[in-house]
Each structure stands twice: as structure tokens, then as C-alpha cells.
Give the backbone structure.
Amino acid sequence: MLRSLVGSEMCIRDRYQRRVRGASTKPMATTESEQPKLSTQQLVRNQVEYYLSSKNLASDTYLVGKMDSNMWVPVSVICSFKMIQSLIGTDEDALLDCIKESTTVVLDAPNRRIRPHFKNERNTVMLREVPQDTPQAEIRALFGVHAEHIANIRPEIGDNWYVNFEDEEQAMAALELLQFGGVTFNGQSVRARIKSENLVRSFIASQQATDNSSSTLTEIGGPGPSTSGTVSYTHLTLPTKRIV
């Protein structure tokens, strides 16, 4: 009887020790404090790269309005954004130092200005044989649910239209709808294709299109103060949507 009890006790002790050894080999859960943290320089660079991304510029009319015809924007403008100020204050030299290693932002340190790194964007759908006097609302309606991702619409010579989307993925989805979704214009299938377009040319063309259509536009809920309740801008075509 004693031998049986001793044997049972040893078995229980062995099982317990195996459980303890097994638990000790399991990796400890990583707490949030142990997660690798980005440096202030990395956080600033990431934020600036977001500001100057094609996706943000498609809707950030305030920042676009601060750019010149080649999309240069003063560093002082970027330093005025609350997110940047929360990281480095308004120190322009610190901001220049943070973004000097960026591969998506071009830095002109002597003139204290920056701009996006230009590249060909495949985010433009070209419509052919659509009269230039067609209302933009009808052009937008052709794209159905994809219309909410349109950044800019403008007519071109020869009854062509260029429709810029937020990114290439949205443009390709919209093109697929036109080609295979049974979309028609005046009873005819819509002729469309993707057009590679330089970001600078797209930016300038959109500015010119706005100039031709209206001398002043009203931005509702814009970032600047206004005593009359509205702010008049030139060159603005889209609602402001920027996280600062």
C-alpha cells in the first residue's frame, strides 16, 4: 500500500515538473512597452511623407494651395501643422534634418522648401470620344461607386477626358467597370484606357482647369479663420481632408 502511494506521488510530481518545464520554454508575451519605438526623426519623416503623398494631395486643398507651379512648398508651412509641432515644435532646421534621408520627398535646403518625389502615376483614366461640353456630373456618373475616389476631372482636346483617381488601384477598378460593366454613353460603349501621367503635369493641368472654370471657389470649413463664414480661394477643387 505504501509503495503504491509513493509511486502515485512520484507520478504526480513528474507531471508537475514537466508542466513547469513546458511553461518555461514558452515565449513570454511582448508588452506594449517592449515594442520597438520609432524615433522622433522617423515619426516626423513619416508624417511629412504622408502630407506629400499623392493620396493626401488629391484631397488636401490647403496644402496644394501653398505650393508653387512645381509643387514646392515652404518648410514653414509644414512646421505650422499641429502634428509636426507636437514632435519638434516649429524648428525648421530640425524638420530639414529629419527628412534629409527621405526617398519620397525632395529637399531644397538652401531655399528651405520641399516637394514630392515626382514619378509617373498610373492613376488616370482617359475617356475617348466624349464631347468636351459634357457636364462633369455626367462624366462622374459613368464611374458608379468608384466616383467617390475621383480626385480630378478635366477635358482635353479631341473630345477626350482625363479622370484622375486617388491611386492606381482605384483607377484600375474604375477602368474595369467601364470595360466590362456594361457602361454606355449616349447609347455607345465607353472607350477608355489607363494613361500614365507625371504628377507635376497632372497638378499643373488641374490648376489650369480650375482657373478656366472659376476665378474663386468657396471652401467650407477650411483651416484658416474667416470673419464672413466663407473663405475664397483660387485653384481649389476638392474638400479639405488633412490630418495635422
